[in-house]
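REQUEST FORM: STRUCTURE PREDICTION
Request ID: SP-0412
Submitted by: Lab K.M.
Chain count: 1
Length (residues): 162
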Amino acid sequence: MQQETGQAIWLSNMEQDTADLASKLAGWAQPGDLIALDGDLGAGKTRFSQAFAAAIGVQGIVNSPTFTIIKEYEGDKLPFYHMDVYRLSLDEADELGLDDYFYGDGVTIVEWASLISELLPDERLELHIEHLGGDSRRIAVTGYGERYAGWCRALSGIGAGE
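STATUS: Completed
RESULT:
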């Protein structure tokens, strides 16, 4: 049985547009949700993560966990697990016990997620952020599984797409 998928495009002409997308998704987030982020260096993965964290009530500074790999934050709504797997091999990532986060009590955002795609849950939301120049970004959103496909349908109805 093939799982349902959905797709949406979010055009971001300024940093606030990216933050608006993060805030919208954060409003739908529940324990065990996973958002897989990809895009070139400087595309806005960490900025998206910061806006998402703020929207679920994380206080204080959220920065890239490039060297620490995983950072845990307490939000007013949910715990927030922020990962950056850029410097990990697939084997190293597999040894970290990421499933405890993926299926835990919080919401997880993984930057550079395509590097460990084999370890990610089948049901997830993937965002690929493409830098278009200046402050403009094109964010391709793909949902795997009914829940995330529904998120894509809802985003398509908002009118931020192409």
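NOTES: The chain has one domain: 7-158.
Reviewed by: T.R.
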